[in-house]
Design brief:
This protein has helices spanning 16-22, 66-73, 88-96, 109-120, 144-156, 181-185, 193-199, 221-236, and strands spanning 39-45, 60-61, 64-65, 80-85, 101-103, 131-136, 161-166, 169-177, 204-208. By secondary structure, it is an alpha/beta fold. The relative contact order is 0.15. The mean pLDDT is 89. InterPro entries: MobA-like_NTP_Trfase, Nucleotide-diphossugar_trans. GO terms for molecular function: nucleotidyltransferase activity.
Length: 237
């Protein structure tokens, strides 16, 4: 391993050799029985859409409501998943996909973070969760493979905060380990996970998205049209 890359599949056993191998700083270990560990996911769907001029999450994107793309990008990876929203229509979309939703009328991003974390890290999941991804609901080009890569990295490196990036530009989603939960529950009013990533800058690692457009979000109708055009062009190519 000192000179060449090695890919190996081994049976899980309590052997000194395997413990030493997995403890190497250049080793990336995946438990094939539980590749993503025990992670939670909070889909952030509480935006009021003031700049957009309406509920952007219900806008058509690729023949379906834009919000559903966030559900698809996070499907089948997490031990617990919840959407936090102010919109009853979004709650109904979640119900149709058997995804729990927290409906609220609280004003701040910090409220959304706290409510989501309480929902996925509560007593309903025996053993709790080891980390939690916070995924914006307005990045319709986010790929499931990027979300899965974040989860794999978090399972292998639970001491780090993991976030998506593109050529040095960091973005969302971000996955926080359990040591950050207490801080996330007590964010200042209006604050989000970015505050923690700035405070614990030395504990942040990144996962590269396949393309920059995965990090683009929808703030305006112009953003939506740009994302639709990119999606159509990439499919044609």
């Amino acid at each position: 391993m000192g000179k060449k890359r090695l890919l190996a599949a081994v049976r899980r056993q309590d052997l000194p050799f395997l413990e030493e191998l997995c403890g190497r700083p250049d080793a990336f270990c995946v438990d094939l029985d539980r590749p993503y560990g025990r992670l939670g996911c909070v889909i952030m769907a509480s935006g009021m859409g003031r700049r957009f001029g309406g509920n952007k999450l219900l806008e058509e994107f690729g023949g379906k409501p834009l919000f559903l793309r966030a559900l698809e990008a996070t499907e089948g990876i997490f031990a617990a998943r919840v959407a936090v929203t102010r919109h009853r229509e979004v709650e109904e979309l979640c119900c149709g996909r058997n995804v729990p939703a927290v409906l609220h009328d609280l004003p701040c991003r910090s409220d959304t973070v706290r409510l989501g974390l309480e929902a996925v890290a509560g007593p309903g999941l025996p053993g709790g969760i080891e980390g939690c991804l916070f995924c914006p609901a307005d990045q319709p080009l986010l790929r499931r493979e990027t979300v899965a890569s974040l989860a794999l990295c978090a399972a292998a490196g639970p001491e780090w905060i993991w976030r998506a990036a593109w050529k040095g530009r960091e973005g969302a989603p971000a996955l926080f380990p359990s040591w950050a939960f207490a801080e996330l529950r007590t964010l200042p009013e209006g604050g989000g996970g970015r505050l923690l990533m700035e405070r614990f800058r030395h504990r942040v690692r990144t996962v590269q998205a396949r393309e920059e457009a995965e990090l683009w979000d929808v703030d305006s109708r112009e953003d939506l049209e740009r994302l639709k055009l990119h999606w159509k062009t990439s499919r044609m190519g």
